[in-house]
Write a structure and sequence with these properties.
Rossmann fold, alpha/beta, 7-stranded parallel β-sheet
């Protein structure tokens, strides 16, 4: 039985990069990958936070391992520095999880141009540039039977036309979805699959305004069709599906991890009114 599951979900000997991997969904993905046997490079702006998470994961006695890297993908130079740092540590990259992202919430009447420039740069431009700069490493890891994998983190807000005051964030995640499909189309000949998660509310620093307190989490859960917010296991299982054997024949897919919100036409909001 163990051999059966290992053949489907095991990642022994594989190397992964998870951006924004020190918190939230990125940390959930890194944990799943380490538990499945992968060597995971965790990158985010704060090197000490990445190193702390790596120590935490390495203490689990899991079959995989982790290291932390400080990297700020908010700038073109930061993206290149991260790509160079990864290339210095491995000659093959089996999995790239583009999770790093930012958001900005403000009223429509005062929403600033700077919020568009910042959010589109981090959420879209950096994702494109990092994938481009790591393509050779992904190709080096890919085979006909076992392609390299790219997982982009979009959002249900990139599918459902609701901004919740986060106008540039929602539009950026719609762009991530389209970019995912474009790269999936172009990368089939390179033996690289490109898919995306479109999460609903999960506990994270980005959603702390609505999920950090017990009352907030309960109120947010009450607005979801399935009556709860996302759990670590939801991200872990989806990650292992796409990175394991099941993902070898899947590309260009946007997987909503949202409890049914994306198909609930009667719902008008993801989060409760925090005012």
């Amino acid at each position: 039985m163990d051999t059966f599951y290992e053949g489907l979900f095991g990642l022994h000997g594989k190397t992964a990069l998870v951006t924004g991997g020190a918190t939230g969904i990125g940390k959930m993905m890194a944990h799943a990958l380490v538990m499945a046997g992968a060597h995971v490079i965790i990158a985010s702006r704060k090197a000490d936070a990445c190193e702390a998470v790596a120590r935490e994961l390495n203490a689990l006695d899991a079959p995989g391992s982790a290291i932390g890297l400080g990297a700020d993908v908010a700038s073109e130079a930061g993206v290149k520095e991260l790509a160079q740092a990864v290339a210095a540590k491995t000659d093959k990259l089996h999995i790239l999880a583009n999770n790093a992202g930012a958001t900005w919430g403000e009223d429509f009447e005062t929403f600033p141009r700077s919020a568009w420039d910042k959010i589109m740069s981090v959420n879209v431009s950096a994702m494109f540039e990092l994938t481009r700069d790591l393509t050779l490493l992904l190709e080096a890891a890919a085979t006909d039977d076992d392609p390299a994998r790219v997982i982009n983190i979009a959002s249900v807000m990139g599918i459902v036309p609701i901004a919740e005051g986060a106008y540039s964030y929602s539009v950026s995640k719609a762009a991530v979805i389209h970019l995912t499909k474009i790269l999936a189309n172009e990368f089939t000949s390179r033996r690289i699959t490109v898919n995306a998660f479109a999460p609903g509310p999960f506990p994270s620093r980005m959603t702390a305004f609505a999920t950090a307190s017990q009352e907030g989490a309960q109120n947010t859960a009450a607005m979801n069709p399935m009556g709860r917010i996302g759990r670590t296991q939801d991200i872990a299982a989806a990650t292992l599906f796409l990175c394991g054997y099941g993902g070898s024949y899947v590309t260009g897919t946007i997987l909503p991890l949202d409890g049914g919100y994306v198909v609930d036409t009667g719902n008008a909001s993801l989060f409760p009114d925090m005012g």
